[in-house]
Amino acid sequence: MTTGVHGPTRARIDEKTLRPDRWWLSPLATFVVFSGFVVFATVRAFMGVDYYASPYLSPFYSPCLGDCVEGASDFGQPFQAWPLSAALLILVFPLGFRMTCYYYRKAYYRAFWLSPPACAVAEPKTKYTGETRFPLLIQNVHRYFWYAAILVGLILTYDVVLAFRNEDHEWGHMGLGTLLMLINVVLIWLYTLSCHSCRHTVGGRLRHFSKHPVRYKLWTWVSKLNVNHGRYAWYSLFSVAIVDFYIYLLATGTIEDVKFF
Predict the structure, then answer these.
(1) Lowest mean pLDDT among 96-100, 146-150, 211-215
(2) Domain boundary assignment for the chain
(3) Element (H, E) at 56
(4) How many of the other CB atoms lie within 10 Å of CB of 224?
């Protein structure tokens, strides 16, 4: 039986939509920007070079656990025998977190699958199954990727602390790379802590807020962040790409780091 907007109980309207505005601009912009990021991140992940310019380590390669250049491994190299790029060992976790994110699911479902392309716009498919079948069934593991995202955020925070050293690993340095990494980790934390899974973990299962005042305060704080979750998702996507590209330019000798002190 046909389901979704073409179901037997839905209104019979021949037009694709009655919306007079340019509803297609938002999914188009998402398609272009997200595709650009995917291409950039894929190329950088498979390069396996130019990801470390002391003391800066690209967030795409942190933590560097494979066969990494000298100075890039702060947690050892347990996967030194890994034949491919070291980034492929850890990118699966932040990538999995973003791909299963509630906001990103809405964004790329609309932009890439037109499911639906916008509110009040019929999708081209005549059958709707939601996320009840493979591979979309895997979206249910989002909360577990959120746990991994917390760990990634802690490691990136540690990288920012190390970025206050100079190229000789002496403390008391701050460059443009330090500032960019600091901004990036703040946006990463805002995106991670505004996550719907974080909100549910903090207070979603409480029956009586009055009996859990601390968790209630945390829940209200996360709820305020959650309002701008989509905005943090995009800001952090841009910031992580900017930081990686800046470190790439430093590592290739294209530019020199701007030093504040």
Answers:
(1) 211-215
(2) 4-251
(3) strand 56-57
(4) 10
Backbone angles phi, psi at 113, to 5 degrees: -110, -5
* Bridge partners (DSSP) listed for residue 248: none
Give pairs for 28-34: CB < 8 Å, separation 24+.
28/111, 30/107, 30/108, 30/110, 30/111, 31/111, 31/112, 33/234, 34/107, 34/108, 34/111, 34/112
Mean pLDDT over 22-29 rounds to 94
> Does a cis peptide bond (omega within 30 degrees of 0) precede residue 83?
no
Q: Residue 58: which H helix or E strand, with range?
A: none
- Enter the tokens of residue 55: 């003391």
Burial of 111 (0-12, 13-18, 19+ CB in 10 A): buried
Which are the contacts of 238, defined by CB distance < 8 A and separation ≥ 6? Answer: none
Cα 74 from chain centroid? 23
Residue pair 257/250 in contact by the 8 Å Cβ criterion: yes
pLDDT 10s digits, 158-183: 999 999 999 888 999 999 999 999 99
* Contacts of 55 by beta carbon, 8 Å cutoff, 6+ apart: 71, 162, 163, 164, 165, 166, 167, 169, 173
Between CA 104 and CA 67 the distance in angstroms is: 32
Buried b (16+ CB within 10 A) or exposed e, 240-255: bbebbebbbbbbeeee
DSSP for 138-204?
Answer: GGGGHHHHHHHHHHHHHHHHHHHHHTTB-TT--BS--BHHHHHHHHHHHHHHHHHHTSHHHHHHHHT
